[in-house]
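2 proteins. here.
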Amino acid sequence: MCTAISYHSQSHYFGRTLDLEFSYGEQVVITPRNRVFLLKNGSVFRTAYAMIGMATVMEDYPLYYEAANEAGLAAAGLNFVGNAVYQAPKEGMENITPFELIPWMLGQATTVQEVRSLFANLNLSNQPFSAQVPLAQLHFMFSDRRESLVVEATADGIHLYDNPYHVMTNNPPFAYHRWNMNNYLNLSPRNGENQFSQAYPLSNYGVGMGALGLPGDVSSSSRFVRAAFHLTNAVKEETEVGCVTQFFHIMDSVSMMKGPTLTEQGAYDITQYTSCINTEQGIYYYKTYGNNQITAISLHEVDLNGKQLIVFPLRKEQSIYYEHSTGSGMDA
């Protein structure tokens, strides 16, 4: 279970939570320009744009969970188990596998509109990375400064949905989430009004009562509504630190702690990491379940014309600032 959002303020910010019971050894990975990808369809693809994101690297290949390129286009793949259906390769179409989709799109497209155009002749093919690594069942969100797009490959084909909420979670399909928002048209950041009956002396007894009914559970439909409500009503900060802080506060409203969500295998779904990418400056921010301190990595502080992937292991140990009676402090 995961949540992705696109936040627009003085810059464009895109990120997600990764909610799983275990880690796949993910790391922050920069793919340089002109990186060669040998595609499953037998062709060679060379990236025009560098990108930064979270990925598991296998056989020198970045399996991206989410990323943004240097042109400001971002993408994320989220679990869509039971609904995602990929087709056999089709003659006359661009056959791209789901694990190739993010680097293939971000390696050549600069806007969501270009993503739409590339999907006109694209087939998400059912070829796995290897016999040991089956295809993940995913749906995708692409975002730039202006708009967001959800892409879902189901039994009846590939569907592209304009996404005015700039939010994506998991099952059910996006069409349900879009319809489900109608159930919450009464929510407001202001205090509520007495719509029950003027015969009763009903009044607010605290702040925030206009949002009574906002779902608080961790189901994907509830997280979608909660993320959309907080994202829509979040104050647009004017500084980089303010925007990043606000972004992580929004994501904290849908994060998962160890304990309340037990899987059928007896493990606990937790938010392994939360990311926030300033897509215009190429800065990747993240924090992990075990470390609340935000770490920042800049796409533009490395050689983007190099040939090798640039990998940054995650900082997972908690960083705590200890204040002493002398007034000075230390990090630990």
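next one coming up
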Amino acid sequence: MFADSARIHIRSGKGGDGHVSFRREKFVANGGPDGGDGGRGGDVIFEVDPAMNTLFFYKHRYKFKATDGAEGGKRRCHGADGESITLKVPEGTIIREEHTGKVIADMSGDTKKVTVLKGGRGGKGNMNFATPTNQAPQYGEPGKPAMELDLTLELKTVADVGLVGFPNAGKSTFLSRVTNADPKIANYPFTTIDPNLGVVTFEDGDGFVIADMPGLIEGASEGVGLGHQFLRHIERTRVLIHLVDTASFDGRDPVDDIRVINEELEKFNPDIMKKPMLIAANKVDVAQPDENGVNPFDRIKEAYGDKYRIFGISAVTGQGVKELLDEVRKLLATSAPKQVYYEQEYFPSEELSDVNLPYTIEIETNRDGDKVYAVEGPKVERMLDYTNLASEKGFRYFTEWLRKSGIGEELKAMGVKDGDTVRFYNQQFEYYADDTLGEEENDE
């Protein structure tokens, strides 16, 4: 089964916590701190697999996570690093952040391997916090948190030539004649629902890749049918063959068909219409003149002959096919390959970092009429999520974070004084200038 899109959730590994311990040896009465650092969390990596041509694997599994780093140990032992996870995708896969639609990576061209989420850094053990005035630190640093993302994976077929046209125009028959592909051929409203790839090979060994783009219908550019899923594959091709049914067995007008398809391509992405395009008038061997005695092929030439090269072909008998392929070969030889590459728009390491998260400080009044400095926002929420304020090491780390984050300085600028209450959601503390926060208050 071909699958060209998928939704997944990824998570990197959390950094291991720094350890708190002290040397305990015979004849060493007061050993110094020897708590080791935590291990780094595993990364989430995407890599191109040349053997893959579908995202089918991701249709049956949604969550992917790297492992967490281990906590540091006593005797300065470093915690083990978490294992990274590598997700294989076919070339041409676009990785987007699901909620914004912004591009994280385009797995094509020279981009073969990308680290999308980095694991959290391991926390430092208490051996790192010893000072002349604090020779027995009772706290270590918590590991940095894991990062999580919801992604959409979107496969854009990489081919030299795109074959477009209405359903039942004969694209699958044409592809099976000129390439090694074996598409399903039937008379359905959507003969093809998946892009089929094939290789056209000439006697001298030269050749090119051609993709049968799924049959389009009017309104495809607005997503009618499976329009957007179909049209995105055309963006990477260099030359287009527009196959049109001149026999009109289903009552369609071939001249109008060309207009409709071109309009849909223009609406979806105007750059598509800048590509070289050839019109292949298919089924000319069975086409019948209209009520005025005019052959459909002549009508097409009259309407579009001044803009496009038009070839009368029969995908069934092979009539005119060689001439068409020779012209495609010339166009590919004279047009420099232009890789359609999507630049990165979303940077997980920046978007998910604490640095860019907002916070607010509001001055409120409690029931006793005293000032309360309420500090809230995603920046604070994230810190509280992975910090245990009930432990001394967690509380000390939180106090240091307040200084580094600039919240402490902003509180001072707003006039906070010793003894004032500072509230972080449901956590309340008395403020003291020497260590920023004192003992936790009890509202009862």
